[in-house]
Amino acid sequence: HVQLVESGGGSVRTGGSLRLSCAASGVSLSRYCSGWFRQVPDKEREGVAGIESDGSTSYADSVKGRFTISRDNAKFTVDLQMNGLKPEDTAMYYCAADRFRSFGAFDQRDYRTWGQGTQVTVS
Fold it and tell me: Which of 30, 43, 14, 19 is nearest to 72 (CA)?
Protein backbone atom coordinates (compact mmCIF):
# COMPACT_ATOMS: atom_id res chain seq x y z
CA HIS A 1 0.00 0.00 0.00
CA VAL A 2 1.70 3.16 -1.21
CA GLN A 3 1.68 6.30 0.92
CA LEU A 4 2.41 9.77 -0.36
CA VAL A 5 3.91 12.73 1.48
CA GLU A 6 4.13 16.21 -0.03
CA SER A 7 6.72 18.82 0.85
CA GLY A 8 8.04 22.10 -0.48
CA GLY A 9 5.10 24.40 0.05
CA GLY A 10 5.45 27.86 1.52
CA SER A 11 4.93 31.55 0.95
CA VAL A 12 6.37 33.36 -2.04
CA ARG A 13 6.01 36.69 -3.80
CA THR A 14 4.26 37.03 -7.14
CA GLY A 15 6.57 35.89 -9.90
CA GLY A 16 8.53 33.64 -7.60
CA SER A 17 9.11 29.89 -7.75
CA LEU A 18 8.53 26.85 -5.58
CA ARG A 19 9.24 23.19 -6.07
CA LEU A 20 6.84 20.70 -4.56
CA SER A 21 7.89 17.13 -4.01
CA CYS A 22 5.72 14.06 -3.50
CA ALA A 23 7.54 11.15 -1.90
CA ALA A 24 6.20 7.61 -2.09
CA SER A 25 6.88 5.28 0.79
CA GLY A 26 9.22 2.57 -0.43
CA VAL A 27 7.51 2.25 -3.79
CA SER A 28 8.68 3.52 -7.13
CA LEU A 29 6.05 5.59 -8.90
CA SER A 30 7.50 4.68 -12.27
CA ARG A 31 4.57 2.37 -13.02
CA TYR A 32 1.97 4.70 -11.56
CA CYS A 33 -0.10 7.50 -12.99
CA SER A 34 0.46 10.52 -10.77
CA GLY A 35 -1.02 13.95 -10.53
CA TRP A 36 -0.96 17.21 -8.65
CA PHE A 37 -4.21 18.83 -7.61
CA ARG A 38 -5.00 21.99 -5.71
CA GLN A 39 -7.90 23.25 -3.67
CA VAL A 40 -8.95 26.51 -2.09
CA PRO A 41 -11.66 26.75 0.56
CA ASP A 42 -15.21 26.42 -0.75
CA LYS A 43 -14.05 25.39 -4.21
CA GLU A 44 -13.71 22.07 -5.98
CA ARG A 45 -10.32 20.39 -6.06
CA GLU A 46 -8.84 20.89 -9.51
CA GLY A 47 -6.20 19.03 -11.43
CA VAL A 48 -3.01 20.95 -12.15
CA ALA A 49 -0.59 18.50 -13.76
CA GLY A 50 -0.39 14.79 -14.46
CA ILE A 51 2.29 12.33 -15.47
CA GLU A 52 1.61 8.89 -16.88
CA SER A 53 3.57 5.68 -16.41
CA ASP A 54 5.10 6.24 -19.85
CA GLY A 55 6.30 9.70 -18.81
CA SER A 56 3.84 11.72 -20.85
CA THR A 57 2.59 14.83 -19.10
CA SER A 58 -0.47 17.06 -19.14
CA TYR A 59 -1.24 20.45 -17.65
CA ALA A 60 -4.21 22.57 -16.84
CA ASP A 61 -4.46 25.61 -19.11
CA SER A 62 -4.03 27.89 -16.12
CA VAL A 63 -0.52 26.60 -15.40
CA LYS A 64 0.72 25.57 -18.82
CA GLY A 65 4.12 27.08 -19.53
CA ARG A 66 4.73 27.88 -15.86
CA PHE A 67 4.54 24.51 -14.07
CA THR A 68 6.48 21.36 -14.85
CA ILE A 69 5.76 17.92 -13.46
CA SER A 70 8.53 15.35 -13.36
CA ARG A 71 9.28 11.98 -11.84
CA ASP A 72 12.52 10.86 -10.27
CA ASN A 73 12.47 7.06 -10.32
CA ALA A 74 15.62 6.81 -8.21
CA LYS A 75 14.20 8.99 -5.44
CA PHE A 76 10.63 7.67 -5.62
CA THR A 77 9.30 11.20 -6.06
CA VAL A 78 7.02 13.16 -8.34
CA ASP A 79 7.87 16.85 -8.34
CA LEU A 80 6.07 19.97 -9.42
CA GLN A 81 8.27 22.91 -10.38
CA MET A 82 6.21 26.09 -10.22
CA ASN A 83 7.56 29.25 -11.83
CA GLY A 84 5.96 32.61 -12.41
CA LEU A 85 3.64 32.12 -9.48
CA LYS A 86 0.51 34.23 -9.25
CA PRO A 87 -1.79 35.00 -6.31
CA GLU A 88 -4.43 32.79 -7.93
CA ASP A 89 -2.05 29.84 -7.52
CA THR A 90 -2.56 30.09 -3.77
CA ALA A 91 -4.05 26.79 -2.62
CA MET A 92 -3.45 23.55 -0.79
CA TYR A 93 -1.62 21.27 -3.20
CA TYR A 94 -2.09 17.51 -3.14
CA CYS A 95 -0.35 14.73 -4.99
CA ALA A 96 -2.14 11.57 -5.97
CA ALA A 97 -1.27 8.27 -7.62
CA ASP A 98 -2.78 5.06 -8.87
CA ARG A 99 -1.70 2.15 -11.02
CA PHE A 100 -4.29 2.53 -13.72
CA ARG A 101 -5.85 5.33 -15.75
CA SER A 102 -9.56 5.08 -16.52
CA PHE A 103 -10.98 8.59 -16.67
CA GLY A 104 -8.31 11.23 -17.17
CA ALA A 105 -5.28 12.83 -15.58
CA PHE A 106 -7.41 15.50 -13.88
CA ASP A 107 -10.25 13.23 -12.83
CA GLN A 108 -10.09 12.48 -9.10
CA ARG A 109 -11.80 9.16 -9.66
CA ASP A 110 -8.55 7.89 -11.16
CA TYR A 111 -6.63 8.25 -7.90
CA ARG A 112 -7.04 6.10 -4.83
CA THR A 113 -3.95 7.29 -2.98
CA TRP A 114 -3.54 10.90 -1.85
CA GLY A 115 -1.06 12.85 0.18
CA GLN A 116 -1.98 15.11 3.07
CA GLY A 117 -1.34 18.33 1.16
CA THR A 118 1.10 21.22 1.31
CA GLN A 119 0.09 24.87 1.38
CA VAL A 120 1.27 27.32 -1.26
CA THR A 121 0.65 31.03 -0.68
CA VAL A 122 1.50 33.67 -3.28
CA SER A 123 1.19 37.36 -2.43
Answer: 30
